[in-house]
């Protein structure tokens, strides 16, 4: 995986828990995901911050590719990790092995932490750095530090932001020491920050029944409409309005399979007062009609 996820993010069909919301941290974003098998490719956005993913339990076959490229396959189990700072969105899919699910932890580290560690290790004049892409690696120290973060945020009744940030600082120093890409130095790419992308996608999900509003989304990201639209498309490969429709169709697919509500009601819930318009958009995006998707044996 090279992920989302926080800002994953991409709308993932997984059980998820935003661990970093339990403490006041803007420079550390942590999400815990319980993944079921996914056969349809998922779009993983590119964000400003490097992403570290640790497999906590279970095992899976994970496939990933750049858009339009060939699939690369990795077998993973508890203890394997991924590190990426890709500037382009990409696609993923996975198959859980030996059970129905596998559990992963997603960590985004803010550039402020990385820059501080870089200056500490490489000198006060050190510029922005990049990391090597790691797929399915193993590192006992990475595992230990992430596990301590997870335990602090889940097990403690009142988790300490100082303790979590200290662990994140120690982890960042280790990553810079061990996985810095010596060929990537200099100007940092202009990309949307993970916490802003997550905030925008959360707002979209809350308003699927409402009309699309670019102004509100840009305000949530604290950017101009033009700048926000450009960075959002760079991160996800889709314009904000296209991504909004994508979320609507994901929600409609879920409701069609998991409930017995009428297609008219489902269309209303995702913002389509006209059943024919809903069916038209659904067919264009999913490849079949809502009724056929719900009962594929009758399609």
Automatic annotation (TrEMBL):
Positions of the HTH araC/xylS-type domain: 198-296
Q: Which InterPro entries match?
A: AraC_XylS_family_regulators, Homeodomain-like_sf, HTH_AraC, HTH_AraC-typ_CS, Tscrpt_reg_AraC-type_HTH
Q: What is the name of the protein in this document?
A: AraC family transcriptional regulator
Q: Does the keyword Lipid metabolism apply?
A: no
Q: Which taxonomic lineage does the organism of this UniProt entry have?
A: Bacteria, Pseudomonadati, Pseudomonadota, Gammaproteobacteria, Oceanospirillales
Q: Which PANTHER family match?
A: ARAC SUBFAMILY, HTH-TYPE TRANSCRIPTIONAL ACTIVATOR RHAS-RELATED
Which is a Pfam family this sequence falls into?
HTH_18
Could you tell me the keywords of this UniProt record? DNA-binding, Transcription, Transcription regulation
What PROSITE patterns does the database record attribute to this sequence? HTH_ARAC_FAMILY_1, HTH_ARAC_FAMILY_2
Organism of origin: Vreelandella sulfidaeris
């Amino acid at each position: 995986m090279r992920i989302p996820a926080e800002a994953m993010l991409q709308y993932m069909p997984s059980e998820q828990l935003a661990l970093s919301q339990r403490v006041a941290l803007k420079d550390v974003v942590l999400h815990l995901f319980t993944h079921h098998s996914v056969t349809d490719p998922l779009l993983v956005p590119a964000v400003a911050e490097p992403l570290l993913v640790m497999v906590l339990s279970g095992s899976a076959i994970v496939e990933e590719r750049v858009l339009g490229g060939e699939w690369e396959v990795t077998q993973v189990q508890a203890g394997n990790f991924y590190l990426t700072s890709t500037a382009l969105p990409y696609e993923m899919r996975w198959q859980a092995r030996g059970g129905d699910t596998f559990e992963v932890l997603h960590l985004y580290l803010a550039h402020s932490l990385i820059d501080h560690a870089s200056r500490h290790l490489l000198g006060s004049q050190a510029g922005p750095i990049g990391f090597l892409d790691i797929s399915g690696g193993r590192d006992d120290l990475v595992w230990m530090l992430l596990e301590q973060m997870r335990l602090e945020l889940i097990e403690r009744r009142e988790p300490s932001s100082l303790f979590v940030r200290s662990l994140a600082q120690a982890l960042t120093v280790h990553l810079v020491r061990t996985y810095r890409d010596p060929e990537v130095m200099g100007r940092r790419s202009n990309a949307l920050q993970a916490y802003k992308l997550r905030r925008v996608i959360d707002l979209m999900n809350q308003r699927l029944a409402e009309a699309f509003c670019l102004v509100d989304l840009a305000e949530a990201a604290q950017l101009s409409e033009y700048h926000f639209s450009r960075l959002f498309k760079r991160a996800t490969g889709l314009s904000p309005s296209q991504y909004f429709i994508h979320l609507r169709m994901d929600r409609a697919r879920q409701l069609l399979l998991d409930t017995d509500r009428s297609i008219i009601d489902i269309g209303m819930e995702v913002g389509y007062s006209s059943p024919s318009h809903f069916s038209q958009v659904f067919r264009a995006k999913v490849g079949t009609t809502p009724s056929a998707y719900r009962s594929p044996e009758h399609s």
